[in-house]
Specification:
Blueprint lengths: L22 H7 L9 H9 L17 H16 L4 E5 L6 H8 L4 E6 L1 H14 L8 E5 L5 H7 L9 E5 L8 H18 L1 E5 L9 H15 L9 H9 L3 E7 L9 E7 L13
Parallel strand pairs: 1-2, 1-4, 2-3, 4-5
Antiparallel strand pairs: 5-7, 6-7
Helix pairs in contact: 1-3, 2-5
Length: about 280
């Protein structure tokens, strides 16, 4: 495998508005009909945070089964890997890490989020758990595009065990250069440990142009960034192939929509990246 090094100027403030996109999913996951562990407790903890504003989530009046179905699909694929070491990037207000750690004391679950988001998440779990944090749950503040931050967060892992990397709803907000940087970091981690990347972030643009326009407008209004999905599956596969990765797309059994699919991405330690560009 070739090691690709880059130099990017990374400023956390450039990404802080992306964290606002985690509020709406948390609101809908907390609804009792979805029965997602700790989701209601997390929402209650969020609302008690200083400076928290529900208005930042946009319109919450419309029912959104999408977010619960997405969460469940990601859970199912992550469990299917058989991993006991997990790295969730930009976990936001997800309760997946808390659930895994409470159910399995042998698991190691690391969340990597921007510093302010990580601090708030730690405080929320502290409230949910009455002043305790599971000893196998690690919440790191940093930027996943920074290899130093990425490496610090993954220092908890056993080198002899594979890792399941999880990203749920992040890469669509990143530019192509940023997508490449985070994929390189994941590539290096999987090359060292083995394992799998589970993500819904390699979805293509939706077929309905009006729906795609609605998604792009929502993203631009909330984050100031353009929604940057792949044009189609072939483009996503070619992108991953540059890093020695291959993917299988899975649809949700709960909600049939082209908005919701997740990819099970494998990496071969023997594979060489075809992207030989050194951008130092």
């Amino acid at each position: 495998m070739s090691c690709i090094l880059t130099m990017m100027i990374i400023k956390n403030e450039d990404f802080e508005k992306i964290a606002l996109t985690n509020i709406r999913p948390a609101f809908h996951r907390a609804k009792p009909e979805y029965n997602i562990p700790y989701a209601k407790e997390m929402w209650d903890a969020m609302k008690s945070m200083p400076g928290f504003s529900i208005a930042e989530a946009g319109d919450l009046t419309k029912a959104e089964p999408y977010y619960a179905a997405r969460h469940n699909l990601m859970d199912s694929l992550a469990k299917s890997t058989g991993a006991v070491q997990f790295l969730e990037i930009a976990a936001g207000w997800s309760t997946r890490g808390l659930t895994v750690c409470k159910r399995n004391e042998d698991a190691v679950y690391v969340e990597l989020d921007l510093p302010d988001a990580a601090k708030s998440k730690y405080q929320a779990i502290w409230r949910i758990e009455n002043g305790e944090i599971p000893s196998n749950l690690f919440i790191h503040g940093g930027n996943a595009l920074s290899y130093e931050d990425f490496s610090n967060a993954t220092s908890h892992f056993d080198l002899m065990k594979p890792v399941c990397v999880i990203t749920e709803g992040l890469l669509g907000y990143l530019s192509m250069e940023e997508k490449e940087q985070i994929t390189r970091n994941i590539q290096l981690l999987l090359a060292e440990h083995g394992g799998t990347w589970v993500t819904n972030d390699f979805k293509s643009k939706v077929k309905d142009p009006n729906e795609q326009a609605r998604i792009e407008n929502y993203t631009r209004k909330l984050t100031g960034r353009a929604q940057q999905d792949f044009e189609n599956d072939d483009q996503a596969r070619r992108f991953l192939a540059r890093f020695g990765m291959n993917c299988e797309f899975h649809s949700s059994p709960e909600l049939q929509t082209d908005r919701l699919r997740a990819a099970y991405i494998g990496f071969s330690k023997d594979a060489r990246s075809t992207d030989q560009t050194d951008r130092r």
